[in-house]
Structures are given as C-alpha cells and as structure tokens.
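Input/output pair, single chain:
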Amino acid sequence: MRSVTGDFVARYMEDSLDLDLSGSLGDITARTLVMHSEADGFYPFAGGQEMAAQIPNARLLPLEGNLSLTTLGDKMEVVTDAINSFLDENPETRRLAGYPKSSGRPDRVQSSSMAVIMFADVADSTALTEQMGDTVFRVKARQLEGALRSAIRENVGTAVDGKLLGDGVLAVFTSARQAIEAALACGKAGDDAGLPLHLGLHAGDVIREDNNVYGGAVNIASRISGLSAPSEVLVSDIIRGLARTSASVMFEDRGAQALKGVGETMRVWAVREA
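Output:
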C-alpha cells in the first residue's frame, strides 16, 4: 500500500491548477471518452463539455450528481460499464489498455436525461444524387459531414456516431442558444457544399445508450426538420422559450403544425439572424 502526505497533495493541487494543456487537445488522435459529473462543484460540467468539444471525435458521458473518485459509491459500476462498452467498440483499444477480451456482448450503458436535439438532413437528396451521380454526391456528403461535426463541436454539442447524412445528422446540446448557433453554422456549411439542409431543433427527455440517443423528443426534432425549407432552421416552442433572451436571433411564428406520429399539433418558429 502506498500513500502520500497531505502537504504533497496540497502542493500538487496548487501546481495543477496553473497547468493548462487545452491548446494541445486538438492534437489528440486516440479515441477518447470524457466523463464528467453534471453537478461537479469543483470542476464545472461546462469544462468537460469544452474539453470534449476540442478533442476530435471525443465522446462525452455526463454522470448524474456530484461525483469524484472518492464519492463514486454505487455509481462505480456505471463508470466501469461505460469504459468497458467504449473499449468493446474496438478490440485493439481493449488489448492495448490491458483489459481482457470481450465476451462479444458488451454491456449497454443506458440513462435518461434532458437534452436539446438538432436534426439535419439534406434537402431532396434523391434528386441531388441523380443530378450529381452517386460518387460525387457521397464525396460531397462526407465532406459536409465533417464540416457539420466541426460546427457541432465548436458549439459544445455532441454528434451522435453512426448517423450518416443519408439518415440525417443528429446532435445533442445542453444549451438552446448553442444549438441554434450550431444549426445556423450547419445551414451555411450545407449551402457552401451545394447540399442545402433541412434543420430542426427540439428539447426533451432522451434515452442515452452507448453513443446513441432515442425517444419521442428525437422523433419530434426530426419531424420539425422535415417541415423546414432548404437552409432554414425551425425550432419548437420549447426551444424558442429557452433561447428567447439568450440567443442573438429573431423568431418568426409559423403557427401550430401537425407532425406525423405526434398526437397534438406543435407550434414552431423559424430562426432569423438579427
């Protein structure tokens, strides 16, 4: 058993507070899992979001409550399951980390939380594919997907892995303002690529499983995006209420809309840059 003195820990913490390696985060090439407590009283959760946003293709896993290595308690299993699931996605990563071989059925980490959801889809992709040809369209789509993921990271969002442009691009945020800014940036990227986008935003409870999200709120975001004109950002009344005083944009009322698969009509708003 090894230990250190309290004086050593105090000096170490004091020196660590002055250590800033944020400028090197963009140089990380390894697959990265960032875990951060949502109610961390010492290191704010926003810091974890910013770190994940600056590391290329990093994944952010929010942990409920105010947890640390000394207060994990019964949450330790959630953390270890998340690490195992992350490593199971790439057996070579698991081997280099010194973990035993996977059983072939990785544990799935599932949780429920509130999120702001952005859904983007190429407008009239079938016609564009016929016009450009399959190869050209796919090249442009892959390039655009990279630009969209960059815009999402720059606005402290998390792109959901496995969602290609053919199926839409899905991202989650903790801030309605940042989600709107990301959506506007994504719209401009689509225009620049010659692949205009439908964009929709909604907020609600989502089920997080590994690096995917599910739930009625995700479906509503998708339906709202389908109502938008090419290059237009439409948001639900919930998003408009959350961002009305914080986002530097204006909202144009589009009235109550019927959404496929949703029992009640929903009021939607078009985002207009101020």
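The mean pLDDT is 78. The chain is about 40% helix and 25% strand.
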